[in-house]
Structures are given as C-alpha cells and as structure tokens.
Amino acid sequence: MKRTTLSLIAGTTALAAVTGFAALTAPSASGSGAAKPAARLPVEQTRLLCPEPSTSDIADTTYTSFTPVTQGTDGGGKAQLVAAGEQSADASGSSQSGKSGKDGKSGKSTKKSDAPTVTPKAPGTPVTGDGSGSDTPALIGTATGRFAPGWTVQETTQVAAGTGRGLLGTNCTAPDTEFWLPGASTAGSRTDYVHLTNPDDSAAVVDIELYGKDGNLKSVVGEGITVQPHSTEPVLLSTLTAAKENDLTVHVSVRSGRVAAAVLALDDKLGGDWLPASTDPASSLVLPGIPKDATDVRLIAFAPGDADADLKVRLASPSGQITPAGNETLHVKGGMTTAVDLGPLTRGEAGSLVLSAGDSPVPVVAALRVVRGKGDKQESAFIPATAPVGTRASVADNSAKGSTLALTAVGGSATVKVTASAGSEGGTAATKKYTIKGGTTQNVEAPVPNNLKGTYALTIEPVSGGPVHAARILQTTMEGVPAFTVQTLPDDRGTVAVPQADEDLSVLLKK
To answer: Cα–Cα distances in Å, from 152 out to 115, 174, 308?
Structure first.
C-alpha cells in the first residue's frame, strides 16, 4: 500500500476518533488529478453520558432520546442507554479522602435494572423514560447507524423541596479530555458536585483544579482521581478546598482516558441546576437565552494563563446590542475568576450576553447564573458560553406550553429552519423559518407538531446569513416557584469531514 494512502487512512481514522465514525467510501477516480473537497458523511457511532440526576429521594427524572432524520444513513443501528456499571473485577484503584461521592465509594456502582428504558424505534420521533429518587444512576449511551447522527438525550429532573429544589436539566454530553466550568461555588449556601463519568473499558485518571478570585486554590486532593471503567464519580467540591468561594472556575483535565464532566449546583435558597462546561476558551463569546423576566444575572469569567483580558459586555436584545449601565467592560485577571452582578439585565425582553475582546484578544471562558422570582420563591439556572449552531442542532423534551426558543445573530442577519418532530406519543412534524436581524436576540414561537401528544424535539438548521447561537428555556411553576432550566444548542456534530480520494478506501481496508 502506498505511503500516501496509509497517511490518508490514518488521518481519516484520527478525525473519526474525535467526532464520530463515518463510512470511509469515496467516489471512483476522476482522472483530473485535482484535489477534491472533503465530503461530509454521517457519523456511524455517537457516545453520550448522562450524570446521576439528583441526591434527593423525592426527585423525578425524565430522559428523552431523539435522533433527527439524516440523509445518507442506512437502515440499521440502535440507540441505547444503560446504567453506569460496577467497577471492573480487576480494578484496584480506590478513592482517596475527599474523592468519593455521596455513597462513600469510588466509581459508584448501580444495577442495570435501575436504568430507564429509553430505546427509540426510528429517527424523527423522541422516546421517553423515567427514573425516581436518589438511586437513579448515571447512564452511558451508545447510538449506531441511522441513530448516531445528531443523537441527543435530555435529562430533566423535578425536585419539589429541599436544597436544590426546582427544575434541573442538562443535555447528556460526549466524553472528552478537558472541561472549563465557571460558575461553581463552595459558599456556605451551596453544595456543588462535579460529576465525572467514564464510558470506556479502562480507568480514567483526572485532575480537578479550582480557581477563585485570587487564583488557583492549590490542593493535592484533586490530583489523580481515578474513575473506574463504566462508572461515575461525584466529587464534592468542598472536599477539595477549605476556602469558601462564592464564584469558582472548575478545570477538569484528563491524564488518561476520557470522561464527561458537569457540575450539579445546589443552593439552599435559589434552588439547583446543572452547570455544563463552557465552550473552549475564546476572545469572543455568546451566552444565549436569558429569560425575559430574570430578576438577577451574574456573569462569571475566567482567563486561563497569565494574560489579563479586557472584555466589552453587550446585551443582544430584540432591537439590537446595548451596553448594560455601569458594566460596559469587564477586566479579567489572568488565572483568576472574576464575577459581576448585572442585575435584572433583560427588563422584560429577550436577551443574550455577548463578550468580545479589544485590540489584544485573550481567550476566556464564561457562564451566567440567572435567577427568576423574588424572596423565598426564587429559582436559578446556568447558561454557559456556547458555540454556534453550525450545521444543525436539536433539543428534546419540549411541550406545547413552557418551552421558549431563543435565537441570536451576533453578526449579520440570518435565516434558520426550525423543525418540530413528531410527538413521543403521537402527532406529525411541523416546520417554520425565521429571520433574525443581525445583532439581536429573538424569542420565537417555535412550531408545535400537528395533533401533538407527549413531548417533542426541536431541530435548528441555518439556511443563510451569519452564525446563529441558540438556547431552549424550559419553564414550569412548582409550589409558586418559577422553576426553569436553560440548554444551549451547539452543533450536533452529526457529520464528519472525510477527504475525497481517487480510490475506494473501503476496498483498500478489506485487503
């Protein structure tokens, strides 16, 4: 086999390892000798990890699995979620002091019978499953074939009372090797866990670093945490440091293997929700989907490295970008977490926060803690900085009432197509197009499936114009509390770029 052919196969294999698996087939030789553009093919396998949903015995959790219909896939495959299993029989690693979850063991084990049954029969229609109490396990999911491209799973939990009560939601995420999570806390009113889930057959070794207002909170307890194969590890942040910090940035880095990481933030007065990872450090960030009736918005930002960042702060409203009074800029010292209270920022209108660097761009990560309600009827949620929708993005567990779709066009105007899937218990898909003026955020009236029964998924696809950032807000009322949760919608990575070749690579791989 020629060296160039070997290099092409190696490069394609490395790319598939990062973004998924795609069919390695290409057109026959054209004879022109000209380089061909890379083809985008559907991925053939997707892994998603759902964290253990709650520490409350009265928690009720719903899982919704959905795959949009994707052209170019075959008729096979499946999507399945199973409970994070027991530790491998030959695994000898044990948890050090401060590294165990609430059960006091490393790599919390669960019975597979505890896992909800969430197995869709076909792309285009969501399916739901339920769990209850604190024993609902973390889930490890795999989708193959026609179920892999764009597969999404929403985990939504209702907790009626106690610390962290309210509506908690998160999109189950793909495993990776690094996560930045600004917005965590070790304050007296907070109980924050970082959940680490390992989907692979070998143990993962993870370091957790905490950064407060004065920099790194040095602790050897967060170094070399072992997450056993097919298991989950909830790490209580207050066991990693004695410092009581209102605003922390959590940095999860993986020495070996890979994990999924998210922070479960529980507050005595402000309820609880999941804090997902921010998008990769960048000099310009968008945080979409601030509710119109937010009573307080707090921005938490962190600049990795030694360089300081000076950020312009803008609110993308329905009429354009405006500057929050008294918070035109934010100075973020290198290696230190900076937080600022922006108050009732949106004042009754849709809004997204836009951060941009000046002449000396320094990469940062950021998130918002958003509060709705007043007095003892307050509820909080988190909005991390997110990447644009890209080619396509989906979000599940929508209902005819209580779901809001926020679309932000930071640059030029953009047109998107939004498809409401069939309902989980009946109904047919519906589609609408929306044009978002540049520099604005619009809360759109999303389409609803015809004759809807159950819940449904929304799929967003840009049609023309500049990049679009999106978020979905779920809202309900629980004992007079305006409970809510926000999920951002980055690109679903349902396709992968595969270099075109002058030979059929599938034939070569069979040799």
So the answer is: 17, 10, 37
Distance CA 247, CA 3 (A): 52
Start-to-end Cα distance in the chain? 10
Cα(203)–Cα(212) distance, rounded to whole angstroms? 29
Task: Classify residue 136 by burial, with Cβ atoms within 10 Å: 0-12, 13-18, 19+.
Answer: buried
Distances (CA, A) of 198 to 32, 176, 336, 491: 47, 10, 29, 23
- pLDDT digit string (tens) for 318-370? 999 999 989 999 999 999 999 999 999 998 999 999 999 877 799 999 999 99
Q: Which amino acid appears at position 494 of this protein? A: G
Nearest-angstrom CA–CA distance, 53 and 280: 25
Instruction: Give the closest residue to 250 by CA, choosing from 270, 264, 230.
Output: 264
Helix, strand or coil for residue 132? strand
Q: Give per-residue pLDDT as tens, 144-157.
A: 999 999 999 999 99
Rg for the chain, CA atoms, rounded: 22
Whether pTM > 0.85 for this model: the answer is yes
Range from 69-83, 277-291, 329-343 carrying the lowest mean pLDDT:
69-83
Q: Find, among 268, 262, 231, 265, the residue nearest to 247 by Cα.
A: 265
| pLDDT attached to residue 46 | 96
